[in-house]
Amino acid sequence: MELGWLLWGAGVLLLLHVLMELSPAVNFALRIGFYCLLCVVGSALAAPVCLLVNGGRTVKNMRIIKTVVKTFKYFFGLRFEVKGLENFKVEGPAIIVSNHQSILDMMGLMEVLPDDCVQVGKKELMYAGTVGLIIYLGGVIFINRKSTTSAKMVMAEVAKTMAADNVKVWVYPEGTRNCTGDLLPFKKGAFHLAVQAQVPVIPVVYSSFTTFYNPKNNLFTTGKIKVEVLPAIETKGLTSDDVSDLTDRCFRTMRETLFRLSGCPRKAKDSS
């Protein structure tokens, strides 16, 4: 009986392997499915540890979450090449902005996330089962993207929290995932926040995922991701009148860096 189950199991695994080799769609679906399963299981394992060690919702839980998530890359053959971590060492709070490409961004985020840093995320994530629970415990600040008034009120509270708790805040200024190899226009909320709180903006750029991850082409293979933390952009003395210029400056700098890291020098030249 046990031999029969073993043979059935071996047969299923062999079939899955053959399908993954023959069908890019099957390979993509299985790898994404496994990634989602890792997120659910990892969250379920990390949540009780966070509660036992830190007692509830706090940014300190991010250290535990980071330790778990940093193991995920080994399952998918992903490598990170990181430069500029010293640029996180600014005194006091800061706004960190980065490009947002896919659901895989969480691995990249946890690879470089500094201590005492909270993220801003969409409210819907709070209801994503164990994943929602763990990001809640990690202190993620949820905003309702459909309500401009609600989002502005939350960002005002973020400014107060940032100053009171001396934390950094990580924001995706594109506002949505974008796996095209370029940047979407930046929303100004993060930059209004930085000017309002008079704290620096620290840009973080990840190279394009398109060489190893592209849902439209059912592509999900091994790959290398280059990450660069750029020097902080000061906002002291700036006012709301300067927000547009600050946003544009950050966009141009990050876009040039994205093209350079992704090996697209012609695009980088065109964007300058």
Short description:
The chain has about 270 residues and is α/β, with parallel strands linked by helices. Helix content is about 50%, strand content about 15%.
Question: Can you tell me about this structure?
Answer:
It is a single chain. The protein is of the alpha/beta class and 272 residues long. It is 50% helix and 15% strand. The protein contains ten helices and nine strands. The protein has helices at 2-22, 24-54, 61-69, 72-76, 105-112, 129-137, 148-165, 189-197, 243-261, 265-271, and strands spanning 78-83, 94-98, 117-122, 141-143, 168-171, 201-206, 213-214, 219-220, 223-229. It has a seven-stranded mixed β-sheet, sandwiched between helices. It has a two-stranded antiparallel sheet with strand order 7-8. Helix 6 (129-137) links the parallel strand 3 (117-122) and strand 4 (141-143). Helix 7 packs parallel to helix 8. The radius of gyration is 20 Å and the shape is globular. The model has no long low-confidence stretch (mean pLDDT 87).
